[in-house]
Design a protein that fits this description.
With about 160 residues, the protein is of the alpha+beta class. About 35% of the residues lie in helices and about 25% in strands. The protein is built from four helices and six strands, in the order ααβββαβββα. The longest helix is centred in the N-terminal third of the chain and has 16 residues.
Length: about 160
């Protein structure tokens, strides 16, 4: 992909690509799989990106790109469980400084988790890890929240 140097413009293009990619598809697994693949292609300096889905009062591993991952995460535990419980995006500059961080991949140094809420119901979270500290900027947070907003239109409860 040939993205511009402007990060906001890059994320706007990414959101449009996601919307077009998922248009007309009604299967959540297919849509989440393509969304994680698109993000993996788009983002640099990451070592894991994917989804944990809300199921039976916990988060369960969903489609992702990267090394094998933790399968079950209780609400309120680690970055993903905390973001799910609060339903607010969490950006962690140094995962080793986050109380209760769950280390699925020892190479991860920073992380961003964006909750996915549809019709006031927690669907799951988007989780992205990086092998470098302080990887995720405010612009990344805004762009990934925009990405989740578009994704949510293509998910079904």
């Amino acid at each position: 992909m040939n993205y511009s140097n402007d990060l906001k413009a890059k994320y706007n293009l990414l959101a449009k690509q996601l919307d077009a990619l998922l248009a007309g598809e009604f299967d959540n697994v297919a849509n989440l799989s393509n969304a994680s693949a698109l993000l993996n292609q788009f983002l640099d300096n990451i070592n894991w990106c994917g989804f944990y889905l809300s199921k039976n009062d916990e988060l369960l591993l969903g489609p992702f790109q990267g090394l094998p991952a933790c399968v079950h995460i209780p609400f309120g535990k680690g970055v993903c469980g905390t973001a799910a419980e609060s339903q607010k995006t969490i950006v962690v500059e140094d995962v080793h400084a986050f109380p209760g961080h769950i280390a699925c991949d020892s190479a991860s140094q920073s992380e961003i988790v964006v909750p996915i809420v549809k019709e006031q119901t927690l669907f799951g979270v988007l989780d992205i890890d990086s092998p470098i500290k302080n990887r995720f900027s405010t612009e990344d947070q805004d762009g990934l929240e925009q990405f989740v907003t578009i994704l949510t239109k293509h998910l079904y409860l």
